[in-house]
Amino acid sequence: MIEILNQSQLDRAKDSGALVATILQAMKRRATVGTNLLDIDRWTHQMITEAGARSCYVDYAPSFGRGPFGHYICTAVNDAVLHGLPHDYALVDGDLLTLDLAVILDGVAADAAISFIVGSSRPAESVALIETTEAALAAGIAAAGPGVRLGDISHAIGTVLDRAGYPINVEFGGHGIGSTMHQDPHVPNTGRPGRGYKLRPGLLLALEPWVMADTSKLVTDDDGWTLRSATGCRTAHTEHTIAITEDGAQILTLP
């Protein structure tokens, strides 16, 4: 289903996006050396509840997962990149942490992800991964607007990732979003310009470039959820929810 939101829903989407951004930035500040991933999950749960919102993850049970996700935020460390299931792990200096969060507030969902390095270390490979996904996301957003084809966004994202030399996985990518977290259309992280669905005002998209340093192959942890690079290389993932407007695109999940 592709959902086109009315003005009232778009106004509520801005509130949802602002909440997601606020929580992610709060968790980034609290994710210091020694912080446990389960504490990040607990703090996220508290902020969602206090805002009167609802997690999109706790009862999330798609075909590729193992039962309900059961947690409030995805926490992916180093070689983990997607659907990182929070577990008993204390962060160390130099860890590359990705936080991915989706909530529903007043009936409308928003979804975003940030990758950052914990502590004072700045490994060059990790910095490059993060900067590339951020640049790819910016390119995809810049390409979005009414009348634009979905392939134009995918092509803009993929061009940045490809030029940086990273293999591109197309199993998981961006997606439509609205009254539920995952909707059509699927937004691959590479594609052909001029192809695909023509964007319309009122459409919400969650764009999410992600890369692995030297492979496009994923493996799944024994927890049935966490997706890692097949080679053990580091990864990064950046995501915003955007609204297609009459004259372009508006980012709803900016800090």
From TrEMBL:
Subunit structure: Monomer.
Catalytic activities: Release of N-terminal amino acids, preferentially methionine, from peptides and arylamides
Domain Peptidase M24, first and last residues per copy: 14-246
Descriptive protein name: Methionine aminopeptidase
Cofactors demanded by this protein: Co(2+); Zn(2+); Mn(2+); Fe(2+)
Organism: Arthrobacter rhombi
Protein task: Removes the N-terminal methionine from nascent proteins. The N-terminal methionine is often cleaved when the second residue in the primary sequence is small and uncharged (Met-Ala-, Cys, Gly, Pro, Ser, Thr, or Val). Requires deformylation of the N(alpha)-formylated initiator methionine before it can be hydrolyzed.
One GO cellular component term: cytosol
Gene Ontology annotations of biological process type: proteolysis
Alphabetized SUPFAM superfamilies for the sequence: Creatinase/aminopeptidase (SSF55920)
Molecular-function annotations in GO: initiator methionyl aminopeptidase activity; metal ion binding; metalloaminopeptidase activity
HAMAP family: MetAP_1
InterPro entries xrefs: Creatinase/aminopeptidase-like (IPR036005), Pept_M24 (IPR000994), Pept_M24_MAP (IPR001714), Pept_M24A_MAP1 (IPR002467)
